[in-house]
Amino acid sequence: MSKLKILSKGFIKENPVFVMLLGMCPALGTTTSAENGIGMGLATLFVLVMSNIVVSLVKNFIPDKVRIPSYIVIIATFVTIVDLVLHAYVPDLYKALGLFIPLIVVNCVVLGRAEAFASKNNVLDSAIDGLGMGIGFTFALTLLGAVREIIGSGRVFGVNLHLYQSDGMLVFILAPGAFIALGFIIAIVNKLSKKPAQ
Amino acid sequence: MASKMKSTLLTMSLTLLLITGIASALLAYVYTLTKDPITQAENQKKEQALSLVLPKFDNSPLEDTVKIASGVDTLICYIGKNNNEIVGIAVESFTDEGFSGRFSVMVGFLPDGTIYNTMILEHKETPGLGDKMENEKSMSISGSDTTWWSKQFIGKKPEFNTSESDGKKYAEPINIKVSKDGGEIDAITAATISSRAYCNAVNRACATYFKIGELKGKSGGKAHYVLILFLALGLFIFIFKKLNK
Amino acid sequence: MTYILIIIGAIFVNNIVLSKFLGICPFLGVSKKISTAVGMTGAVTFVMTIATIVTWLLQKYVLLKFDIEYLQTITFILVIAALVQMVEIVLKKVSPPLYQALGIFLPLITTNCAVLGVAILAATSKDFGLMESTVFAIANAIGFGLALIIFSGIREQLEFSDVPEYMKGAPLALIVAGILALAFMGFAALA
């Protein structure tokens, strides 16, 4: 598989959120705005790339039976680093993401890539795979955040689009809007890729 | 490719021990690196709030604090001084009556007891509704000035109905309530619960500030003036009656 | 009184799935039949309660005591993973019928963010003692079960409805979940 293919597959064809339906909790929970979506996506991207690299480096030294707990420890380490760094240098984002930062550790995308790709491939390919999946995840979260913010309050990235006289359709920023917006985005992705759902 | 390590009890426990050891060592290192920036980041919000809710000060109120008990909780009061003279006191107040979870507000008072300004420190209210009371956010939303919510509190002087029962003093706020409850504050449309909660937090701050006043005997001084005024009034009426006879 | 508030708050007002977005994966994954939904709820209740108690004790008597709160994430996830394994072994020995019912769901629970999420929420809450945390965990598990069972009931009916091909599966499930979340927002006034 060429490097470019590894990088690009996470973006559309195997997009973790829209196609593989992984990592739904942060995708729904943190996308009240496009900015928060980007923040969460980048935090996950860092954990994905780093844990993929380390897992790929140590894969031969880890006995098969303790494989999963070892991967979890590696992932949890990088999650804690992200947690501390965000708390120190981006406190506003840290507050907005809240509980979902430590929960990156149980994001199925991260453990899934470590187990399915990094434990079988070399370091460079694993890093690229993590990067591709991370970009795909960030893209999905940013898109969902932007859609919710535009419909919900008529603004995106702090720019007022003047869609509404006063308040927007606030329900899209609240919990129900998250489910509904993601449902329609996945339907559109299905329609465009003309792939029947399972 | 080297062959995989065999899964024996020894290799398994050694691997796990080694990995967790390296992980905790690495984390301890990152923790020491980020410890100071984290406390700085935590204080930054408070400093920002203090400079908004207090008149210009030249000391560091974060280090000049008084703790006042309010009910079961203790509130921290930050004292702002300019040229060693107290220019205002900020009370870090809170309420549990918000829409979701605790909600903390910094309330600044001038020495005469009027509110200088207020600012939300932390809340979990509904985005788009309850968070309109965050002054810095509402300003950036539409470009137009929508800080009317927090402006309502500027210059308000808290009034209390004080009652005494079981030897304890109770202070019932009169004017700092939403208009639905008979107060002077207009609630944010569709966010009455959040508006009420904000008033509740401000009132807690007021009651606490009231206590500081009592500690200093300032309110005693005021009662003195009131007494003199009443006496003068009585005397005046007395003289007036005599003259009419 | 506080317990009632915690219970109502966790089940209805801040429902763990429909308002906090925790445990979405099993919510979408095992909600096609009511029977599997019930099995999953049982397994989650079991693990969530034990995990919250153990992690609360760890937080109070180890992490806070030695000032190593930054190891919270790594400790909690390891405890949960180990706990799931232990529950599996014990159930297999003690109650084979229960193991038959819950067994296939147990491995899925390690990566159920609801369990870790509730454990962290309970351990970091300022005013939760051990008793409150336990009640909080059970109430959240009930809230999870309620959402899951209602949702699977709806999905069983959806099987028979004629919808466009690209709406089948996840998209329709998510939209139904959104409407369900809308209904749960009505409980907000209870708080």
In short:
The complex is a heterotrimer of chains A (198), B (245) and C (191). Chain A is mostly helical and 198 residues long. Helix content of chain A is 65%, strand content 2%.
The number of helical elements of chain A comes to 8
Estimate percent helicity of chain A. Answer: 55-70%
Distance between the termini of chain A: 26 Å
Estimate the mean pLDDT confidence of chain A.
85
Spatially, the strands of the biggest sheet of chain B line up as: 1-2-3-4-5
Residue ranges of chain A: pLDDT <50 for 5 or more in a row? none
**Going across the major beta sheet of chain A, what is the strand order?**
1-2
The biggest beta sheet of chain A reads: 2 strands, antiparallel
Strand content of chain B: 15-25%
**Helix fraction of chain B?**
40-55%
Number of strands of chain A: 2
Rg of chain B (CA only): 27 Å
Which regions of chain B contain 5 or more consecutive residues with pLDDT less than 50? 136-146, 217-221
Task: Offer a few descriptive terms.
heterotrimer; B: alpha+beta; 5-stranded antiparallel β-sheet; two-stranded antiparallel ribbon; elongated; C: 191 residues; mainly alpha; 73% helix
